[in-house]
Amino acid sequence: MTDRPTLAELVDPPFADRHVGPRPAELERMLAAIGAGSLEELGERALPPSIRDSAPVPTSIPEAASETEMLAELRELADRNTVTVPMIGLGYSGTVTPPVIRRHVLENPAWYTAYTPYQPEISQGRLEALLAFQTMVADLTALPIAGASLLDEATAAAEAMTLLRRAGRAKSARFVVDADTLPQTLDVLRTRAEPLGIELVVADLAEGLPEGELFGALLSYPGASGRVRDLRAVVEEVHTRGGLVAVAADLLALTVLTPPGELGADAAVGTTQRFGVPLGFGGPHAGYLSVRQEFARQLPGRLVGVSRDADGNPALRLALQTREQHIRREKATSNICTAQVLLAVVAACYAVYHGPSGLTRIARRTHRFASLLAEGLRAGGVEVVHADFFDTVVARVPDADAVADAAHAAGIAVRRISADTLGLSCSELTTVAHLEALFTAFGVTASVAELDAATDDALPAALRRESEFLTHPTFHEHRSETALMRWLRRLADADLALDRTMIPLGSCTMKLNATAEMEPITWPEFADLHPFAPAADAAGTLEMISRLERWLAELTGYAAVSVQPNAGSQGELAGLLAIAAYHRSRGESERTVCLIPSSAHGTNAASAVMAGMRVVVVGTDALGNVDLDDLRAKIDSHRDTLAALMITYPSTHGVYETDVRLVCEAVHEAGGQVYVDGANLNALVGLSRPGAFGGDVSHLNLHKTFCIPHGGGGPGVGPVAVAEHLAEFLPGRGTVGAVSAAPHGSPGVLPISWAYIRMMGVDGLRRATLTAVAAANYVAARLGEHYPVLYAGAEGLVAHECILDLRGITKESGVTVDDVAKRLADYGLHAPTMSFPVAGTLMVEPTESEDLAEIDRFVDAMIGIREEIRRVQAGEWPVEDNPLRGAPHTAASLVDKWDHPYSRDIAAYPNGLTPGVHDRKVWPPVRRIDQAHGDRNLVCSCPPIEAYSS
Ligand SMILES: *Cc1c(COP(=O)(O)O)cnc(C)c1O
């Protein structure tokens, strides 16, 4: 009886024990290596007292819940939602995510935990899927260059607008938008046009182009009303007047309609949501943008291209403007960084699985239902507004609300356009039963079978698509489930994601994305909500969003939060627009200068320009901190025009700057506002709040600190958090327009962050932060003697990441950061962030989720690599031919003739082979990729199969 445990001793361990990697004994070893007695002591020493919260901060965040408890609470919220058949349209359609794609992509960590493919040799799988995405968009729109996704349709339209302005020759600042454009697209266009001095002219282009000059136009195809028009005449007229044309087009409709490229358009934009991506109450979904060949170099966002590897084999990588904001900063064409890769992969898989014939069948079926619906209504005496449409029927009735209510009672949500007009959008989900229910709601009697026998299609004859699309074998070879499953597995096996290795990417916070956090995102109650569903139908999701916004506000020390921005970059834009609006509201519209430290993330400068600000760069001192003297000088010379300072905290150098309060005070004293880039919040949560140490506004990256997986380059959520005086300037709340298409951005993935906070509680979050700081300092302590750690704060400690300086080593040995990054792939590891924020360095962020064994595996690999560098330095291996320069090594490269001065063993098994132990070797599928070759010979869609045999 005596050694019997009590119930209290047997409670579930907290979720934080699962989220945090190091076991207690491991943590002790890590702290010993750093020379700290405890996590708390480490925090005391690492964080400057000036930023620390002296007393616990009261929050509404409850005590940590277990996984089971959290899931029960989310289930309860989910049950408060009412899912209806979505016939609202407005750019969001019902769709079926094929279960094989849901399970093998959307719910598969091999796909969702991957990072943006900046290390292409270990990212060939997602690059191949993205190439299929680009090919799909290019083929369907008949415009040859398509990027690897944008954030949504509305922001894609805004990107197209600025692209046409850059690419065209017209001097005019006028951009004409057809009145039949999605309202949310118009809203975002207004937000984005205003600070850039673009004059938007909204006009009904069915009546002809308005008089006057213009640099471009946006047309919709079909329009927001569902009407399909022949755009050729307008396109020609715009061209005649020296402008360029973008067409917002429905990709599914383009399987049966003449594509924009064949109508003469210069660019096409839209969403790929209806290609199998759940509605999610607005997102995340992949937007697309495709352009004519000559605009390839103007394309914002990422573009996947074909190149070749060191052995001459075809290999994929990001082409041209990769990381362009980092290089071009305030001259960047766009601020987009994180995009929507995971959703682009889903959409591409949908096209691969259905193939051109399957997509055409789905389109025809969708159109057929719409045609029968229109005819049934007409026959029943209801006025149908447009004769030519693809999927949307607009009907006029005496009392639209009464009909909409009746439809809703039957489980169908329709669009209430006005007091007497309704929109009814068909989709892949539409059934005969839905049509019958709608007829009843309209008080019409009709037989769908009889209508089917007697009704013609409603597509204009002159706009039938004749050209082929998706002819590439990729869209024909994976049509059985077995074939698709194996294709997906083959692609995933080519990539290194978090399910195989730590991804120590500084500034990116590649931490655990727990299964319990991920599960709810595919629950139908969350996944199948239309963004414009009646609020009562989304009660549970709205409650979840408002709690999450409150928690985030409390954790950051701000008054209000909006989750609308779809990535950090969009949060930056929203925050800066809030600042600009604030100054304007006080009659200080001359305040337009934005101070940005030279070490800032490239998106900062690009966002400032998009917000209509002028960037003035502030230097950093020898320690990597903002140079206070330079800051004061810059403030002095721009005192009357100072709008804001953008500062990242902890700095992009991974250091807690001691003087951040002084910095904030100096800016405030001059009448400026302080923007604290919160991408590095993983070093602050639970310890310090930017809103409390001087920030007026911050964006957070839920896909970094708050566990939304990176998805191979998106989705992201970049909430913007503001102090009280800026709350009225949050996006879409009146003064400042929307920055995303959907009112709440990407609610589909918000349960992840909600679940994380709910299961960690404030104590767990604080523990995560301190553990992340311990992990970074452990790496710095162990690697410091092999690679200089570039910056450290007071007490010689770093924050949650550390920069390893290879510049001296490169100078002495000729071995570059590239060589080290690629060599890590031979060790089965993902490289750290390369050359950001300092060229020639590696920035390591282990996060709190990695256990000591994995961190040591990385550290040991880096030490092994340092030894290899020494052998190069000693002349044992030539600079041009050694295991580093030759990295990564494929299996094929070893079985051929071998004429290198190092052995095959060293090439492939740098750690040595351990007999009898399961072989953890990960074989990179390609060797080092030739970037320049790909940029010179730009190929951005699936190359013909023959290309692979040469
Ligand atoms: C990641 C990051 C951003 C941009 O966030 P996205 O979601 O990729 O747009 C901005 N600033 C810093 C410091 C970052 O690390």
From TrEMBL:
Catalytic reactions of this protein: N(6)-[(R)-lipoyl]-L-lysyl-[glycine-cleavage complex H protein] + glycine + H(+) = N(6)-[(R)-S(8)-aminomethyldihydrolipoyl]-L-lysyl-[glycine-cleavage complex H protein] + CO2
The protein's enzyme class: oxidoreductase
Keywords: Oxidoreductase, Pyridoxal phosphate
Superkingdom of origin organism: Bacteria
Glycine dehydrogenase C-terminal domain segment(s): 768-889
Chain ranges of the Glycine cleavage system P-protein N-terminal domain: 17-442, 448-736
Database matches in InterPro entries: GcvP, GDC-P_C, GDC-P_N, GDC_P, PyrdxlP-dep_Trfase, PyrdxlP-dep_Trfase_major, PyrdxlP-dep_Trfase_small
CDD domains assigned to the protein according to its UniProt record, in alphabetical order: GDC-P (cd00613)
Residues with N6-(pyridoxal phosphate)lysine modification: K704
Role description: The glycine cleavage system catalyzes the degradation of glycine. The P protein binds the alpha-amino group of glycine through its pyridoxal phosphate cofactor; CO(2) is released and the remaining methylamine moiety is then transferred to the lipoamide cofactor of the H protein.
Family note: Belongs to the GcvP family.
Assembly: The glycine cleavage system is composed of four proteins: P, T, L and H.
NCBIfam families: gcvP (TIGR00461)
Protein name in the entry: Glycine dehydrogenase (decarboxylating)
Origin species: Pseudonocardia xishanensis
